[in-house]
Amino acid sequence: LKTELYCGHTFTITCDVFLTMHTESLQHENKEDDSSRTQCGDGWGEGAGSSCNIIVLPGDSGVYWCESREGPISNMVNLTVTGGSVILQSPVLPVMEGDDVTLLCKTKTTPSNLPAAFYKDGSLIRKQPTGHMTIQHVSRSDEGLYKCDISGHGESPSSWITVTGDTLTCLSRLTVSPSSSQFFEGDFVSLSCEEDDSSAGWTLRRNTSKQQRTQCGDGWGEGAGSSCNISYIFTLDSGVYWCESREGPISNMVNLTVTGGSVILQSPVLPVMEGDDVTLLCKTKTTPSNLPAAFYKDGSLIRKQPTGHMTIQHVSRSDEGLYKCDISGHGESPSSRPTTTTSPITSSNILVCHLVVICPYFISTLLMVSLYRHRAKGNTLKTNTDERLCEDYDDIAEVTTEHQL
Predict the structure, then answer these.
(1) Closest to 289 in 3D by CA, of 309, 269, 303, 304
(2) Structural domains for the chain
(3) In this predicted model, what pLDDT tens digit does every residue of 114-146 receive, in sequence order?
(4) Number of other CB atoms surrounding residue 232 within 10 Å
(5) Where in this chain does the record put each Ig-like domain (predicted)?
């Protein structure tokens, strides 16, 4: 299992139960790109059962997970395409306490066993003559952000290494108040981690376009128990948020979009039960908020409403899509993708989860990341095309896979 790959190579992501692969873009500052929460085969990757084969290209950066009809339930993996000729290969899944872990620093060209310097959290920890370093009997203190450097070739991207105990903790639930996926810059937002009427021991983390896996209070938000209050939210606070225990991120993910514009679409931030009614509210930053609005789904006008709100009755899977709204003279909102589910997250769901994790191979996602050689001669044309795409992006030469859950 490798954490970093080179542009143009192929890797495979597999769910160990028959789920659906989705991705959510981390480029939240560019909301013109409506690629949030797309499915394997929908413009990226090639599905094969519960696997997805991807030839790595610049636009493939994002958060990946496996999903059932009840919503995202697997671990998350963050793929980041960056520049450079050096990668650090490290475990993509959490490492068991007490195990040995080998990190490999390699160049895109041979030889791959050049002397390398290894860093943890920005500090030099070791220089190795053959480009690999073994951490023996890993513990929680070995968790951190690792990178490596090969003289004359450059520095690798950073990868986060997670250490776990012998059990997995089950689902927590992240809630947002006000309950919306879009906010105006300057709004107050509160996020809370909940599990079976208890919210003790959870930490809120996020990925944004500028920061990866940062904790509430670390330059953003103010912690209050297992809640996090953002008193003045900025556009750079747009990103993916989740709750995390010592075993890793295990809650639902929430994508928050903060706009500096004058129109937002308020829609449910959590999945909606099939059969329920859902109201979408198109509002301006200034009063009044009940102006006439046009509503769009997947780019097509679906309804014009005189008071700025639209109700979808008895929602079903067919109602899922990318929604936005427009208020004449004020502008257009960012896009949001409401989702539906067949059952809520309840204490009984959590009990089942606790029972099943006794056999973790049936509940956790086995993420297989396999590096292949370029396509054989029969696929020379496609391989050359992929190589040209990689060459066109000099600043994108490898893929960093940061295990998140």
Answers:
(1) 309
(2) 4-165+362-403 (2.60.40.10), 170-260 (2.60.40.10), 263-345 (2.60.40.10)
(3) 999 999 999 999 999 999 999 999 998 998 889
(4) 10
(5) 72-164, 249-342
